[in-house]
Design goal:
The chain is α+β, with helices and mostly antiparallel strands and 268 residues long. It has helices at 15-37, 42-56, 79-88, 100-130, 152-155, 168-181, 205-223, 248-254, and strands at 137-141, 145-151, 186-191, 231-237, 256-262. The longest helix is centred in the middle third of the chain and has 31 residues, at 100-130. The termini are far apart.
């Protein structure tokens, strides 16, 4: 059966498009005329440009970016310094003025955090003094937490995640300290040196550090009444060294377990 071919649409653009194009041309001419009749206050423009140039150093050729460091176009972002820069001008991250009372309150909160961490660190140090464990555990503190650093060689054999028998008394004292003083969250971090693993159960340092942090976690779970929902364990591998890995002494320091006790005012 023969099918009827549909009629072809009329050639050329629809009539409304021509009318619309004429309208756009008229509007363009109208705004060009308005712009040509306007005038720019050259003095105000120069003052505005000078203000931007003095504040941000972005208009003069060869000016530096905000803060030190490489530009984002070179692969390193400076956004981490942007908040500090803005706050130094008396504004918040949105560019609004920071009220003096708010800045004062923020400083007082930071002081209170630091004071609480310092007091907690002193209590922990006194306990370690009583047990003669000062040489086995290093203590540091920030406004967020008190950190206990344990030498990995004291806790584990090379390439192993099993806590050594002779390290159990030390772990018992650590457990008592955490149970007595930890009111906030606790974070256990395993760290290694940068020597590649070979002939061991674990194929790389990431797995080894994670296994060691998990072993400490399990010990606390079995030997304390801590709420383990507040205890986090992570393996940092070789990526956060505290000493030079090119020396035997430095590698020994990097093989460690860090336990961070966050204070009750911490934002963590």
């Amino acid at each position: 059966m023969v099918k009827r071919k549909p009629p072809e649409p009329p050639k050329g653009a629809p009539a409304w498009q021509s009318t619309f194009a004429d309208l756009m041309n008229l509007l363009l001419c109208f705004f060009v005329m308005l712009f040509s009749m306007s005038s720019v206050d050259a003095q105000k423009f120069e003052l505005l440009a000078a203000s931007f140039n003095q504040t941000f150093s972005i208009l003069s050729g060869g000016a530096t970016a905000i803060g030190d460091g490489m530009l984002p176009g070179m692969g390193v972002s400076q956004l981490n310094e942007l908040d500090d820069y803005i706050n130094s001008t008396g504004r918040d991250a949105e560019g609004d003025d920071i009220p003096e009372d708010l800045k004062s309150a923020t400083e007082k909160i930071e002081e209170a955090k630091l004071k609480e961490s310092e007091e907690l660190a002193e209590k922990v140090e006194e306990t370690l003094d009583e047990k003669n464990l000062n040489n086995e555990i290093d203590i540091e503190f920030t406004a967020q937490y008190v950190q206990l650093t344990l030498n990995g060689a004291l806790l584990f054999d090379s390439g192993s995640v099993v806590i050594k028998e002779e390290a159990l008394p030390l772990m018992n004292q650590v457990a008592l300290i955490l149970q007595r003083f930890a009111e906030g969250n606790i974070e256990i971090e395993g760290h290694t040196d940068n020597v590649p693993m070979s002939g061991a159960k674990y194929s790389n340092n990431d797995e080894l550090s994670s296994g060691r942090a998990l072993s400490v976690f399990y010990y606390l779970e079995e030997n304390t009444t801590l709420d383990m929902g507040r205890v986090k364990h992570t393996g940092r591998g070789e990526y956060a060294p505290i000493a030079d890995n090119s020396t035997a002494e430095g590698r020994a320091r990097n093989r460690r377990v860090e336990i961070k006790i966050y204070n009750s005012l911490s934002s963590y």
